Automatic annotation (TrEMBL):
Alphabetically ordered keywords of this record: Antiport, Cell membrane, Ion transport, Membrane, Transmembrane, Transmembrane helix, Transport
NCBIfam families assigned: matE (TIGR00797)
Principal location listed in the UniProt entry: membrane
Name this polypeptide is given: Multidrug resistance protein NorM
Length: 445
């Protein structure tokens, strides 16, 4: 298969996924932009709530993307669409109990905020925002589930179209609920959470309508149960990895929160800006995981190296360009969210530093996705956790303990991307070399 043909396949998946993720981020940025008009305490509460939300849905996201997504892509590559539909049924069976478990945290949201060194005011505001999101998170879970399924089957345009349809709805309800316009009650950050839930439930409704109208295979729940073991086998290592990452990341955020309030708010803004930069990388990583899994299912081993190489090149071009802008004009990005000069300065510092590390971050996305597509899930998860502690958690703790400037903590985060990329590129190449040698010996034998 030629590089041009592979590039077309990659972009067919990556561009709609990236645009859908960008619209997801736009929904978050709309919340932050509107909440930023209320004050820095509200902005910090929403930013922290979004981090906590990412942690809570990260379990489901990794379980579906790594477990269900790999299975669906492999079965689609092997032309076993009925089995792929049954895997979707298995993912539905997992979503509801996880949601019910998550709601048990609602009474303890304020305590959770305080655990990460926020002020009492931020904790009270966070209880309003994050508590509301958790209560309606079943729609967020189902949105993640259905997005994963359609991308894994190769239909990545549908999630993008659905998100476009719901984005305007989110803007309208934020406008109504946050500020109390058009006769609606002014609910502040709780209104932002309600706007997100309404828009996401609209996404889910559209997905279900498409399934009802276009599905040629009926989900067989009895067979769906047989796929639960495979979903969990592939997905649980990534769940553990993600859970460890989120807990560790929250610890790092608590260290940043121990600095000046402007540093905490600035980091929340900077992290959101960075999230825009790595959206193309997430899109190309989704393409890499899908295509590698599909080639494994179709027994097309020779295309695996090519698709990973081409995906890595495209990712470097995309993320390198955006990262360059981040490094050159960070203040322009930061000033979109706040007028407070001290917050802009701290946000710009993080944006500039992390902008220089976007290319290695993109390579890390692609090669870890390809490794998971190969089925190297458990060891990839273990390596990521070890690297996280060695490269970020421990050095950050030392920096905070010594009372060094927050810029050193930001620098450690950026350098970790470089080290991680080198490790996973090396592992992928070693596994592929071993696979080729095994194939050669098998042919000789």
């Amino acid at each position: 298969m030629t590089s041009q043909s592979l590039s077309k396949q990659i972009l067919t998946i990556a561009i709609p996924v990236s645009l859908k993720l960008f619209l997801d981020m736009a929904m978050i940025l709309i919340d932050l932009f509107m909440i930023g008009q209320l004050g820095s305490a509200e902005l910090t509460a929403v930013g922290m709530g979004l981090v906590l939300l990412a942690g809570s849905i990260g379990v489901l996201d990794n379980l579906f993307a790594t477990g269900g997504g790999i299975l669906v892509a492999r079965l689609t590559g092997a032309k076993r669409e009925q089995c792929a539909a049954n895997v979707l049924g298995g993912m539905f069976l997992i979503a509801l109990p996880l949601y019910l478990i998550g709601t048990l945290a609602i009474p303890f949201v304020a305590d959770l905020y305080l655990l990460f060194h926020t002020t009492a005011e931020v904790a009270v505001l966070g209880d309003l925002y994050f508590g509301t999101l958790v209560a309606g998170s079943i729609f967020i879970y189902l949105d993640v589930l259905l997005f994963t399924y359609f991308v894994s089957t190769g239909n990545s345009k549908l999630p993008m179209k659905i998100k476009i349809a719901s984005l305007g709805l989110n803007v309208v309800f934020n406008y109504l609920f946050i500020f109390g316009n058009a006769g609606a009650p002014a609910m502040g950050i709780k209104g932002a959470a309600l706007g997100t839930i309404v828009a996401t439930s609209f996404n889910v409704a559209l997905y279900l309508i498409v399934i009802k109208q276009s599905f040629t295979h009926v989900i067989q729940l009895r067979h769906s149960l047989t796929h639960l073991k495979d979903i969990l086998k592939l997905g649980v290592p990534s769940v553990v990895e993600n859970f460890t990452f989120q807990i560790s990341w929250l610890f790092i955020i608590s260290l940043i929160n121990s600095y000046a309030a402007s540093a905490a708010a600035g980091f929340q803004i900077g992290y959101r800006v960075e999230s825009i930069a790595f959206l193309p990388g997430l899109g190309t990583a989704a393409a890499a995981a899908t295509l590698v899994s599909r080639f494994v299912g179709a027994n097309r081993s020779r295309d695996i190296d090519s698709v990973t190489s081409v995906t890595a090149t495209l990712t470097c071009l995309f993320m390198g360009g955006v990262g360059g802008l981040m490094a050159i004009i960070p203040e322009s990005f930061a000033s979109l969210f706040t007028n407070e000069l001290s917050v802009i300065n701290d946000a710009a510092t993080y944006i500039r530093i992390i902008g220089l590390a976007q290319i290695p971050l993109g390579l890390q996305f692609v090669y870890t996705a390809s490794l998971r597509g190969l089925g190297d899930v458990s060891k990839t998860a273990i390596i990521k956790v070890v690297l996280l502690w060695l490269n970020i958690v421990i050095p950050s703790s030392v920096i905070a303990h010594l009372g060094l400037d927050v810029i050193w903590l930001f620098t450690v985060i950026a350098l970790a991307n470089v080290i991680d990329a080198a490790v996973f590129i090396t592992r992928f190449k070693r596994l592929r070399a071993q696979s080729k040698m095994a194939t050669m010996y098998s042919a000789v034998g």
